[in-house]
Amino acid sequence: MELTLDLHSHSGYSGGVGQIDLSDMIHAMELKGLDIFGTGDAFHPAWGKFLKTNLKEIHEGLFSYQNLSDSKLFMLQSEIIVSFPMGKNKRKSFHLLILLPDFHSIDQIVKLFEKWEVKNTIGRPFLVCDSLVQLAERLAALKEINPMIEIIPAHVMTPQGVFGSVSPVDSLEEAFGSFSKEIKIIETGLSADPEILEMIPELKDKTFISNSDCHSSDLRRIGREYTKVRVKDKSYSSIIHALRNDEVVYTGEFSVSEGRFFLTGHRKGKKGHEESGIYFTPDKTPEDKKCPDCGKPLTIGVLERAYELAVRQGGKPKLPKTTRRQFITMVPLIELIAVSMKKTHTSKPVQALYHKIVSNSPETEFWFMDEKTMGGFLTELSFEESMIEDILSVKKGNFSYFPFGYDGEYGKLVIGEKIDLNLFSSEGRI
């Protein structure tokens, strides 16, 4: 059987997140076509207590919320931040996704956090280590609690990811030490996809998974990335086995150029950038990587970091023509409809057309239709020709984002124009 997974989210206890209602999440899962969703923030005392009180295990390691659905289920999950010293006055910090088989494992990990004096007052516990050796030992200690606990580098290329531009490292071993051999799975993140990650030689044998990292049930956010896996049965252990052994059928990917850290630059609104932001493709970035407008270090984008890592690991700084891994690139359907109609995604006409589609085909299944089937499907639903053309343009890949995402700003969707990232060279002010 196949399951559609979105295993990275956050509760209302993470910064920048409002109140989370799991019943709203279940409704969004139905519209999106998701089977299993990550709970987010399972180590947080209040959220963990809520989960323990309201979730019921109906398959091994998979939980129903208040018996509202036996098909839309939750997996226990959290993100943590780890940190260790690099040199005299510098530390490396990055985010990890933790998948958890049961509440007992959570309780045991929380005890370790207390022993290690880990800050656990927000959604992401902050594990500060005295050395790389200690970091490796502590991650190994988490795995010793239960071998089915899975530790995954989160949004691996963003500034907060293990290969991000903040205190950069050039290999997994530099960031994980002896624990690097335990890293089997990599989360792509919104600003990277299999094409970008396959440039990096060290990652060629890893499983790539994609998740939304959503902070709400907003239909532009939940399921914007997902992973389809082939499993023996509906259980936590079957899912983990599938991920460890790269039984991924395909991933659904956010367009990398929309991602908030795709290109290098400084966004408008930063000090020294009151009037405009500035961005660079890798070939245009100043050699000293400092902003020509404000003089401060630029926020290095995912594409540039991937090029750097490709070269340092003996690869080529060029996107491959084909990839070993199957994936589709999507635009959140409600966002696409809104752009086509020139309305907000919350407007009634946009909502009506979105629900007209997903009431007949969940969004993940809709994007997996071939072009002929999709066109016929939309015609049967009496969509206007211009809307059908815009949706099919995205299906064909005939779209882009301009300006691209950079320094925390999402890219802006442009339908009907495709940009070859291998050929694109630009710098500009926005």
Tell me about this structure.
- The chain has two domains: 2-258, TIM Barrel (Alpha-Beta Barrel); 331-396.
- The longest helix is centred in the N-terminal third of the chain and has 14 residues, at 132-145.
- It is globular and about 60 Å long.
- It has 430 residues and is an alpha/beta fold.
- β1, α1 (22-32) and β2 (36-38) form a beta-alpha-beta unit.
- It starts with a strand and ends with a strand.
- It contains 13 helices and 18 strands.
- It has helices spanning 22-32, 45-54, 103-115, 132-145, 172-176, 194-197, 236-244, 302-312, 333-341, 348-358, 363-367, 371-380, 385-395, and strands at residues 2-6, 36-38, 55-59, 62-65, 73-85, 91-100, 126-128, 150-153, 185-187, 207-209, 226-230, 248-254, 264-266, 278-280, 327-330, 399-401, 413-415, 427-429.
What's the short story on this structure?
Helices cover 29% and strands 20% of the residues.
Key features?
430 residues; alpha/beta; TIM Barrel; 2 domains; nine-stranded mixed beta sheet; three-stranded antiparallel beta sheet; 13 helices; 29% helix
